[in-house]
Write a structure and sequence with these properties.
eight-stranded parallel β-sheet, 13% strand, alpha/beta
Length: 294
Amino acid sequence: MFSGSIPALITPFKDGALDEAAFRRLVDWQIEQGSTGLVACGTTGEASTLSNAEHHRVIEICVEQAAGRVPVIAGCGSNDTNNALLHMRFSRKAGAAAGLCVAPYYNRPGQAGLIAHFSHLAQNSDLPIVLYNVPGRTVTDIVPETVCELAKRFPDRIVGIKDASGDLSRVVDHRMGISKDFCQLSGDDELALMASAAGAVGCISVTANVAPALCAEFQSACADDDLTRARELNDRLYPLHYAMFEDASPAPVKYALSRVHDWLNPDVRLPLVECSDHAKAAVDAALDHAGLRG
């Protein structure tokens, strides 16, 4: 259902508010550069600092501007099941292709709670769900047995996973336990090459915000089983993958975008602040290594 390079888009701010013009321009640039899908209001989009009204407006703009050229996956996750459902129903109405639903954070539900949470979403909305497993942020881990159980219970609703657990064996666990139609997407840029070898079909990427053409070409090489070209592109992008997390994300990627586009600025919302001088130096060096600054 989804494949290739899918950037988890930043949410541009100007004077503390959503910069709608810059966001529309970013969507157009991403599609022109070869991105095969877009995620709005994910972690990189600072969804945790958006009001519900802002959250829904970002999704609405993304769908409008994409205009059917690529699918939009709307960030719908919440640690409040009812609020997640609210996001899903809005996203369905807005025209999103799927909802990206993170494991509930802070509450720390067990596996039975995760099954109940995602089952409730699947039973009360007809928007397809891409699970999002990122235990480093949520503490809660959607283990492979739970992923397989949910996909078997709701094959038409729970259609894929963005896995950022760092455990590459899970790609095989999911592939062996679920229909081949289940869509596995890497959630870690630096592991995308290895995830592809294990059976992933794409990456929901931070780096693709600033290097969409290179990330798209990399994913295309992976899909074509061109390991030599994929490795070359991976080497070119590798320092950038790590530079994106030299400081609290998305501050480094917003800084990186400000270095390659004069219509984007590095503004983030509290509790995040602009990235450190050390992180800026790492980003600048990685941009130069990738050949992304003139």
